[in-house]
């Protein structure tokens, strides 16, 4: 279901992937610095979640400024929260690369507000960009340390923007319940020599769904 979500004086393009049965929880998903919501990995994850009973709303926001992207994410969360068509108990925020930074930033902002009401249940970071390539001295981990909700990281062990030891070091300092799943030999774009894209996406999708079932009441009674 395609929708246009009002955002300031423009609109954000978004698409609902709706499961056959009513979903209690949903996932809001967005892309990284390049591309849009129709990148194959996002399409694949949204379709997988919907086929397993989880509503997924993915959206496009082209801004390259994290504060702007965070604002857009907040608008989408509020839109879904107030939706009459999909009455959800809670949502998980998910993003690829820069999209996951925006999601983490938003959760930190909302947790500082007095009206934080637990609508956001957790965070899924696909290829979290912990540092710029070859700039491991400047880590973008502050928001992660402030989180309290469950967090799933799925990263490539050869990601040039997220060195394995550095992410594991940040994770050890985090107060939030967290899990890291490493895709062996994958780069920042989740490409692995000798493996098909579909094969890698299948691994990612399965990991996301099994983590969701552990962290939300997704099993249909």
From TrEMBL:
The cross-references to Pfam families, in alphabetical order and at most eight, read: Abhydrolase_11
Q: Where is the KANL3/Tex30 alpha/beta hydrolase-like domain?
A: 27-206
Q: What is this protein called?
A: TEX30 protein
Provide the species name: Neodrepanis coruscans (wattled asity)
């Amino acid at each position: 279901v395609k929708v246009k979500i009002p955002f300031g004086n423009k609109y954000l393009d978004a698409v609902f992937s709706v499961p056959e049965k009513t979903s209690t929880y949903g996932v809001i998903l967005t892309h990284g610095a390049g591309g849009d919501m129709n990148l194959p990995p996002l399409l694949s994850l949204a379709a997988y979640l919907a086929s397993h009973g989880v509503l997924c709303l993915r959206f496009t926001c082209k801004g390259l400024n994290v504060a702007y992207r965070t604002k857009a994410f907040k608008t989408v969360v509020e839109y879904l929260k107030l939706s009459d068509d999909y009455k959800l108990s809670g949502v998980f925020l998910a993003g690829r690369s820069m999209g996951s930074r925006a999601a983490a930033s938003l959760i930190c902002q909302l947790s500082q507000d007095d009206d934080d009401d637990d609508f956001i249940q957790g965070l899924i970071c696909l290829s979290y960009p912990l540092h710029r390539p070859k700039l491991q001295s400047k880590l973008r981990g502050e928001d992660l340390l402030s989180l309290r909700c469950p967090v799933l990281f799925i990263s490539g062990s050869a990601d040039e923007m997220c060195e394995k030891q550095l992410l594991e070091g940040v994770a050890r300092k985090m107060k939030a319940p967290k899990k890291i799943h490493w895709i062996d030999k994958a780069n920042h774009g989740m490409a692995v020599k000798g493996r098909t894209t579909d094969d890698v996406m299948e691994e990612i999708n399965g990991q996301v769904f099994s983590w969701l079932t552990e962290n939300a009441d997704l099993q249909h009674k």
